[in-house]
Amino acid sequence: MSTTTETQTQNQTKFGTTADIPIPRGSTKASLTFYSAPPDGAAPFNYVEPQPEGHPQRNFGEFNQEVTIQDVRGRESDFDMNTNGFSVIQGVSSEEKDFADDEHIKQIYYPEVEKVLLENAPGANRIFLFDHTVRRSDPGAKRTPVTRAHIDQTTKSATARVHLHMKEEADELLKGRVRLINVWRPLNGPVVASPLAYADSRSVPDSDIIGVEHRYPDRTGETASVKFTEQGRWHYLSGMKNDERILLQCYDSKDGARTPHTAFTDPRTQPGWPGRESIEVRALVFG
Ligand code: OGA
Ligand code: FE
Q1: Domain segments of the chain as ranges
Q2: Hey, is 160 helix, strand or coil?
Q3: Per-residue pLDDT, 12
Q4: Integer Cα distance of 91 and 270 in angstroms
């Protein structure tokens, strides 16, 4: 294992990245948070919004384990969604600069995401973008990095999503291939804090992926939490830049690749370095 840093001059950006930070490169070790079952044997749940009075926010526990996280920088094209569950796309330009207004994001950024998916998800012929999340690391931010290994959807919730958004077309669409893919990018790259890690889909068996009831105020969905496995092979993209995208496949009705993922605290990050800001857009991908 090598843990190296490399000095690179960065441009001052409007998101507050400071110059001359030595970007951590190469594989690193970090503690990740995994699932542990509710002690009473109950089915696991968590509340998305603040939980109703008298209820815990979640009823399952956590298990922290140090793992090695490999850098895919320099071998980005070795990984592909069908096989590994994630892909790296580079050199993507964007007209959206602020990421401050949801309607503006939908108008300007969504069509760019749709194009990335049509060009990079082989076979895709129709895209429906149903959600996005902007994350900022400061404690006052509405959404912060997620430090818990998970997969956003399960077969059950992916199927329910198709019905929810595609209405009377759903049954027909479900006869074909349906994928659920998140398009993730930083807003203040290069990322030097709270990078996103993703496991090779093949290295985490189905038996370590646990469906969790995801209770919204108005409906109940399902996400998956992930148990620690010795075989898990974790990756990240060092110094990820604003013109790069990670495609994280959460569900595929055909080949089944789905990638567990989580943010991690990089032990090489120094106090005072800018916190990571990012956006992920969630897509139903047909064809
Ligand atoms: C995602 C996700 C977490 C993060 O994109 O699905 O879980 O910290 N992101 O960005
Ligand atoms: Fe996620």
Answers
A1: 29-286
A2: helix
A3: 44
A4: 28
Q: For residue 139, is the peptide bond before it cis, meaning its omega torsion is within 30 degrees of 0? A: no
User: What token pair was written down for 267?
Assistant: 């032990």
Query: CB of 261 closer than 6 A to ligand 1?
Result: yes
- Ligand 1 and 184: CB distance under 6 A: yes
| Prediction pTM value | 0.93
Structure-token pair, residue 24: 């951590």
CA of 150, closest atom in ligand 1: 7
Q: Which of 136, 153, 182 to mutate to test the pocket of ligand 1 (most atoms within 8 A of CB)?
A: 182
CATH class for the region spanning 29-286: mainly beta
Look at residue 255 in the predicted model and tell me its pLDDT: 87
- CB-based burial label for 54 (10 Å; 0-12, 13-18, 19+): exposed
- Separation of first and last alpha carbons in the chain: 40
Mean pLDDT by 10 residues, the chain (287 residues): 41 52 96 96 91 90 98 98 98 96 98 98 98 90 94 96 98 98 97 97 98 92 97 98 98 96 97 95 98
Q: 214-225 pLDDT, tens per residue?
A: 999 888 999 999
Q: In terms of DSSP H, where are the helices of the chain? A: 81-84, 102-104, 110-120, 155-166, 170-173
